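ping. complex inputs:
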Amino acid sequence: PAQPRDRLRVAIQKSGRLGEPARELLASCGLTWRESRDKLFCYGESLPVDLLLVRDDDIPGLIADGVCDMGIVGRNVLVEHDLARRAQGRGADLTEWRQLGWGTCRLDVAIDEDQEWTGPEQLAGMRIATSYPHTLGRWLEEHGVDAEPVLLNGSVEIAPRLGQADVVCDLVSTGGTLRANQLKPVTTILHSEAVIAGPGHPLDDGRQEIADLLLRRLDGAVQLKE
Ligand code: PRP
Ligand code: ZN
Ligand code: MG
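pong. complex structure:
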């Protein structure tokens, strides 16, 4: 059983596209912190809101396990978590509390830039490198395509050159990573943006009150930017 807590713990990405803007957004809500020596934990000074800096892929699990109370993460990561649970016959445990409108990206299938794209059926029998096997699997199923997702947690874009896969299914923001690897996006399987994720149920120990206060400030901060 979790220890009673009277501080809110927010998970954000340690590095990568969403980490810095997430921290700036929270700072614009008037939050200040004292950093731990390894900079992975930030102790909230102005409000009882602490930050945990982690890999984005770990954020849904941390919230689901109650280690963190909310997180700022790409929808792509949440959708994958949700589909993985469903594959185990379990229901959804997290929800999107807010959509933030930045950090937009697409989960795309990309093929060799010299290859022609004729449609999803072209992928039949192929090995597709991805960090999103369940999201890809759902799309393949919807299109009646039998292909083989190859799970890679990083450097997905070099898999075709290494002979690990025939094509990739990866996140595309500017498109620079794909171009640098002589790949081109051919079809989109998910649209994503940064969201605030939290449990599907209210928080205990008075933490919901802190969360509500933070969400009100976040809404104000987001509106100011518009
Ligand atoms: C994604 C993706 C690529 C990169 C693409 O990573 O895995 O590496 O962004 O961006 P580009 O189109 O602008 O080149 P992300 O930042 O989500 O971090 P992660 O893969 O480390 O989780
Ligand atoms: Zn990641
Ligand atoms: Mg990456």
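Residues 16-17, 56, 170-177 surround PRP (ligand 1) (CB under 6 Å).
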